[in-house]
Amino acid sequence: MRAIELLNELAAKPATLDELARSSSVHKTTVMRLLHAMEEKRMVVRDDEQRFRLGSKLFELSSLALEQRDIREVARPHLAELNSRTGHTVHLAAFEGKDVVYIDKFESHHPVRMYSRIGLTASLHSAAVAKVLLADMPRARQEKIAAGLDYVKVTDNTITTPEALLAELDVVRKQGWAHDNAEHEAFVHCIAAPIRDASGAVVAAASCSVPIVMLDYEGLMGLLPELTETTAAISQDLGWTPIERNAV
């Protein structure tokens, strides 16, 4: 427990032996012994000013811990709560190979609902979850994918050219969310937001889908704050730290 207390101190800021000893409940020699033991294991390191700071072993362990956390498992309680609050269909989607696949779903509480299922692929040029995932890719990869798609026009709102899709992805990247404005199905629209891992990369997307007869576009956009709050919470559970929280 004393070693953990020291690590917690160093997580706040680097400190010298004397500084750590002053704030510790044990003798300075005990603090020094613990620090030396952790230094041997690369849990702490010393800089040129003899200040201790967290070492590379801790970053290695934290990366392994995050890798062991399954996105579906981490996201599920958050998405269940979103579904409970809104009553609307909630999806979780991620890339599997070249396809965007729905990997989890919470069904609408209402009698009028859309058809979807876990394992179904999402249209890359019209589904909001696909737009969110594509928007985080490097431009060259976006262009390659956009050029190779079969642009099936389902509704008057469906994107039908690579140029239009790339322009849409620019908007999604800047605003931080995407919509499917009745582009994939004429009677359903949805919004989606990104889920990030510890590196900040978008690794999944969550969405709310609603039949238009139940909620107009303005009403759909009213769900956006709850959706982005949910995806931010999932991202933080995956190790992501928003830029604003890093600011001094």
Concise synopsis of the structure shown:
The protein has helices at residues 2-12, 17-22, 28-40, 56-67, 71-86, 128-135, 139-148, 162-175, 217-221, 224-237, 243-246; strands at residues 44-46, 52-54, 89-96, 99-106, 121-122, 178-185, 188-196, 202-211.
Textual characterization of the structure:
There is one protein chain. By secondary structure, the protein is of the alpha+beta class. It folds into two domains: 2-66, Orthogonal Bundle (Arc Repressor Mutant, subunit A), CATH 1.10.10; 69-244, 2-Layer Sandwich (Beta-Lactamase). Helix content is 46%, strand content 21%. It contains eleven helices and eight strands. The strands form two sheets. Strands 5-4-3-8-7-6 form a six-stranded antiparallel beta sheet, with helices on both faces. Strands 1-2 form a two-stranded antiparallel ribbon. A hairpin with a 2-residue loop joins strand 6 and strand 7. Helix 5 runs antiparallel to helix 10 (224-237) and helix 6 (128-135) packs across helix 8. The protein is elongated and about 75 Å long. It starts with a helix and ends with a helix. 32% of the residues are buried. The mean pLDDT is 89.
List the keywords:
single chain; 248 residues; alpha+beta; Arc Repressor Mutant, subunit A; Beta-Lactamase; 2 domains; six-stranded antiparallel beta sheet; two-stranded antiparallel ribbon; 46% helix; 21% strand; Tscrpt_reg_IclR_C; DNA-binding; DNA-binding transcription factor activity; transcription regulation; Tscrpt_reg_IclR_N
